Amino acid sequence: LVKVAPFWIGKYEITWEQYEIWGDELDILRRNLAGASKTPRDTVADGVTRPTEPYTDMSFGMGMGRHPAICMTQHAARVYCQWLSAKTGRTYRLPTEAEWEYACRAGTTTAYYYGDDSNQLSEYAWYVENSDEAYHKVGLMRPNPWGLYDMHGNVAEWVLDQYQGDFYARQPKQVVNNPLAVPMQLYPRVVRGGGWDDESSMLRSAARDGSN
After folding, report:
1. pTM for this prediction
2. Which residue in 82, 99, 154, 159 has the fewest CB atoms around it within 10 Å?
């Protein structure tokens, strides 16, 4: 049994238009164009390391803007959260695997947050059967009972945990509070939710995968 403390989580997957403010230094460019002075938060945020310039279009022609940001490492996703925290004065981080599943399930106990029938999945998720081999803009499918979109499919999401296939099987039978497989090595890390090119089984609320 797993118990998690209260937390907030984003309604949508992080989009390119959000991620590029940090990754492409759009916030700095806009400030310079406007001739605006740095705020104390800007000073801290500007010190957060930006990603190296990509060698190609990291959307691979599938769309930017309101499409979900992809192709970043887990480290880059964590540093984005660090920058966002500095920029806003609020603390942001990746969810733990347990937090992610709790949010995805939204109080349900079925294979998917809407039920067990994978034949209904096309109403709730972009996956191999309906995606036309590409991801899609966030928020187009039906949300889960808590109003969270694309928890099944579209793109898989990074969480904080190291991937250990038997991690939950090794937990004690009593209630475990806020479990986290603390990363002790570089790879693999856990991704959850499945993506546009995955089969329905990988989109289940409980499905786990490891990624570099």
Report:
1. 0.94
2. 82
SS3 162: strand
Q: What's the CA gap between 200 and 124, in Å, rounded?
A: 11
The Cα–Cα gap between 25 and 133 comes to 30
Cross-sheet strand order for the sheet of 157-162: 157-162, 189-192, 208-211
Q: Which SS3 state, helix, strand or coil, does residue 76 take?
A: helix
**Rounded Cα gap, residues 200 and 127, in angstroms:** 7
Q: Render pLDDT for 118-173 as a digit per residue (tens, 0 to 9).
A: 999 999 999 999 999 999 999 999 999 999 999 999 999 999 999 988 787 787 77
CA distances, 156 to each of 28, 69, 95, 110 (Å): 29, 11, 13, 20
